[in-house]
Amino acid sequence: MARKRDGERSGLPRGLREQLRIPPGGSPVDLSSYDPAATPGGPPDKVKAREEALATGKRLASLQERLYAAATAGDRRRLLLVLQGTDTSGKGGTVKHVIGMLNPAGCRITAFKAPTDEERRHHFLWRIERALPRPGEIGIFDRSHYEDVLIARVRELVPAGEWSARYAEINRFEQALTDDGVAFVKVFLHISHAEQRRRLLRRLDDPSKHWKFDPGDVEERELWDHYRDAYEAMLERCSTVAAPWYVVPADRKWYRNWAVSRLLLEQLEEMDPRYPPARFDPEVYRARLATG
Amino acid sequence: MARKRDGERSGLPRGLREQLRIPPGGSPVDLSSYDPAATPGGPPDKVKAREEALATGKRLASLQERLYAAATAGDRRRLLLVLQGTDTSGKGGTVKHVIGMLNPAGCRITAFKAPTDEERRHHFLWRIERALPRPGEIGIFDRSHYEDVLIARVRELVPAGEWSARYAEINRFEQALTDDGVAFVKVFLHISHAEQRRRLLRRLDDPSKHWKFDPGDVEERELWDHYRDAYEAMLERCSTVAAPWYVVPADRKWYRNWAVSRLLLEQLEEMDPRYPPARFDPEVYRARLATG
Prior knowledge:
Radius of gyration of chain A: 21 Å
Region (Disordered) (chains A, B): 1-47
CATH superfamily of chain A: P-loop containing nucleotide triphosphate hydrolases
CATH architecture of chain A: 3-Layer(aba) Sandwich
Domain Polyphosphate kinase-2-related (chains A, B): 49-273
Order of helices and strands of chain A: HHHEHEHHEHHEHHHEHH
Shape of chain A: globular
CATH class of chain A: Alpha Beta
Pfam family, one (chains A, B): PPK2
Structural class of chain A: alpha/beta
Distance between the termini of chain A: 46 Å
Organism (chains A, B): Streptomyces meridianus
Helix content of chain A: 40-55%
GO molecular function, one term (chains A, B): kinase activity
Oligomer: homodimer
């Protein structure tokens, strides 16, 4: 119902999730057929997008509060936003601008770096488990367990037999979490090779951005085609009914922010969390407060 | 210097920190001499406060980014906002409205509840250590280790000899953290007995706020005078040069938000974090990017 209302309001024929979803089932994915500069379902321009963001932010914050409130009465549901994409694709910018619209007290944000020695001694999902949102929270992963089928595959950090078994492991893991109340919004931020160059050059040109520039990013860029293959495999094999992948064209930052906030909104509207009923008699406490 | 500039701009004779700080040294504190509805140093009204918040939010976010950037080059500094105050004093509202102006990726927020069984088996500072901000982060404690000299004292959860030794323990702990780069902003949100009644009644009247109403809050309210004594002892004994306490009048939410954001701003301006210099030669990478 919520989705239909949105569709009417913005003139969309159907939800954004349907438009951006990689259909589950394992059909081959060819990223070259997705235009990174496209704006499917989006507003016509940046100005309009910024206007919409205000209303979207309010609705998101209100749904977030309900989700949080419901958990105080035992509702185990939570949302997990997974952000993947190459360096400069805008994972950090999405957290800043989209998650910045929410109440930070209800967010649990983790940026996954190269695993520490301790993390390496454990199963690759160990550090993921520890970072999961608790009931009522919105979890945000800036990179995730998918690194273990991305850089681990491209850089051959583990034998092929090991990373290739991980796709099915991840699907089982996510299915179990879904059964326990986790709603996934998995977003692949899709930028072009040319746009990445522009962004890296901008970091080099601006001294206040030098700290963000990692020389290693240029090395990774030289493996662009290998990463594309790894992303395609991830999208093909791990877009499931329980936890589908969405491909968000990300060359335009305003569209990226608009799309991710809409995906979260549609997901939360479908979850439709409710304020729990009082577990006390308000009259009793009104009377007690009247006297002191 | 930053503080002088602020003073000039807003017409304040001196920084807000000086105005709201409990002078270190252990002189008796009488909370009845602090008006919870006052607005010391603040803008004349809500509208003006909201206007200022936009500019303050931008400056805060910019300083936060520098702090974060500096940590990538080894700067160990971080900021820790400690929020204490009775139920309904606005700790959660402060996180939502003030911390909501920051980049959530650089914030580490912990709401301390009654200790779990595991936490109870450890020293009272164990769970605090685990929640500290890492270098470059802004930590936010909604309640804190001070609960161990507040509810623990009022409810006699531990023998008097034990809680009374904690004031000095806390001071040593905070001194050690300060030496390691933690800048404290400890805020006591000061509301009146009458304002608490209004806020509790509002929660009872609004079904969408019932989840926030804890019947236990009414029991705690009946111990108001005991809590006042415990707050006064905390302010007297733990306002140190290294980590002073600020008393923020909190009956007016707009003033509370304004004041806490200003305290953070003054602290960050004094810290004056800097973007680190590049540890690479930009020309080398510009050339590599030109070819692919």
